[in-house]
Amino acid sequence: MRVRKLKEWLIEKSILLSGIFSVVFVVLIFLFLLREGLSLFRGESVIDFIFGKSWYPISDPPRFGILPLILGSLLVTLGAAAISVPIGIAAALYIAEVAPLRLREALKAGIELLAAIPSVVIGFIGLITLGPWIKNLFNIPTGLTALTGSVTLAFMAMPTIVSIAEDAITAVPRQYREAAIAMGATKWQTTWRIVARAARPGMLAAVMLGIGRVIGETMAVMMVTGNAAIIPTSFLQPVRTLTATIAAEMGESVQGGPHYAALFAIGIVLFVITFLINGVADLYLHRSRR
Amino acid sequence: MKPRLAQKIAFAFLLLATLLVVLPVLVILLIIVAKGASAISWDFLFSMPRDGMTAGGIFPAILGTLYLVIGAIIFAVPLGVMAAVYLVEYSSDNWLSRLVKLSIVNLAGVPSVVYGLFGLGIFVTFFRFGASILSGSLTLGIMILPVIITSSREALESVPRHFRTVSLSLGASRWQTIRHSVLPHALPGILTGMILGLGRAAGETAPILFTVAAFYLPRLPQSVFDQTMALPYHLYVISTQVPGIAENVRYGTALVLLSLVLLLNLAAILIRSRFRRKKKW
């Protein structure tokens, strides 16, 4: 009997510990990014790092200004959001409100499969099919541009946007719809003016989480954007994002050196951005559930 | 405009948008199958790469990915399921459980390349595991933890309250109740989460870039402290870093990776829908 009590005590404590591990990992991720990244700021000011206009990590002296990378990420993300938000929200409305039950299940499975396609496969397809197509369409020297990145990433953001927005729309109480229909509104008027409005906080969260996914996406964006670390002036030129810079340059940096530290410092920036986006999105999600 | 007409036009637009989301999946699948199927052969799947990857097969990459996902699952499933049990069965709505939930949301949102940095900082450098299967598996394991916790939580929450009250009223302890009356019913849901986690781990590239993946290693790893090739990284390498690789080999590699990941996801979807239909309590 006492052995069993002891065993249960041990099990319950390890369950509690496992719960706390998620918190530990978030803290550890941040600490290890700081540990490797902060040494950069012994020789460099934070302002020069974030607003510096040139990223020449291997010239002498090296320059670690990430403004071109931030703008690259921003441009690609804005483009992807412009494509994926309207399409994603519309698709969510269709799936939740219009599609018959069977079609609805099939569509949801299809969207889940789209979410499951590895980013390197999407990047590969973007590189081989979309790149040449954009090159010919706009008659430009290379098809690997910010626009190519935006289109590719839009497809990676859509599953997130559609599935979370669809949840929010489905969660709108039935009485809202019944009341609107009883007042003589058509199904579309109900969907657009009542349901979509009631689901707004959840849709906003969906958009933010989709954008969070786009900012953090690495492989696909590295393969299709052409990777030029210059301040972008148009969608039709190569750009380089924060994530792609880390992935592309870590292999050639010297461990413990300033370049290595600078790449970890970019990691800190990414961590903080996504932390904020996810935190705020979570607040909206909770508000929409209430 | 007449409301009826407006509705028709609006719904047509919504349908169009839905097709724009779903059709690319089919297009991508068709392109990859059509152009990659000719590369698939026994030799391609089960032999070593030769001549700087321009000839031979992709066996070490396939095996490496299997090792990595198995390692990630061994690490993440016990931890994730226990964390879910904590959240559903033990915690009340206090600051600690709220902090845990917020952490899970944030773990899910951390960019994959940041997981790569973390793995490099902690496992490769700090614990001195080097670039190895161990470092890569642990990094992937932490990355898929939110997937496993979230689906295990849903599975546990779907077990009706009275299963617990009945068991407790018969004199079972809290843990006995969970072990015998809750977990067995949540098993299909937990399995779904595990398979989804497998699929996610198999397809990710950025977390293994600096923690395990070898560019070209035409031999099989001997221990968990060895580097290994992996399918997603291999696809990246042969499509961007090495010129002169036959097109059908690239598509073939993409086809193998895509089939692996999509089959896992399809299995998860099927298990879940069966489970939902069967469940009538």
How are the SSEs ordered, and which strands pair?
The complex is a heterodimer of chains A (290) and B (281).
Chain A: H1 2-37, H2 46-51, E1 55-56, E2 63-64, H3 67-98, H4 101-116, H5 119-138, H6 146-170, H7 174-182, H8 187-198, H9 200-216, H10 219-224, H11 242-249, H12 258-289
Antiparallel strand pairs in A: 1-2
Helix pairs in contact in A: 1-12, 3-6, 3-9, 4-6, 5-6, 6-9, 7-8, 9-12, 11-12
Chain B: H1 3-36, H2 42-46, E1 49-50, E2 55-56, H3 59-90, H4 95-109, H5 112-126, H6 133-157, H7 161-169, H8 174-203, H9 206-209, H10 231-241, H11 247-278
Antiparallel strand pairs in B: 1-2
How would you explain this protein's 3D organization?
Chain A has 290 residues and is mostly helical. Chain A has one domain: MetI-like (MetI-like fold, Orthogonal Bundle). Chain A is 76% helix and 1% strand. In chain A, strand 1 and strand 2 form a beta hairpin. The two termini of chain A are 45 Å apart. Chain B has a single domain, classed as MetI-like (MetI-like fold, Orthogonal Bundle). In chain B, 75% of the residues lie in helices and 1% in strands. Chain B is built from 11 helices and 2 strands; from the N terminus they run ααββααααααααα. A two-stranded antiparallel ribbon of chain B has the order 1-2. In chain B, helix 3 packs antiparallel against helix 8 and helix 8 runs antiparallel to helix 11. Chain B is globular. Chains A and B meet through helix 1, helix 3, helix 4, helix 5 and helix 6 of A and helix 1, helix 3, helix 4, helix 5 and helix 6 of B.
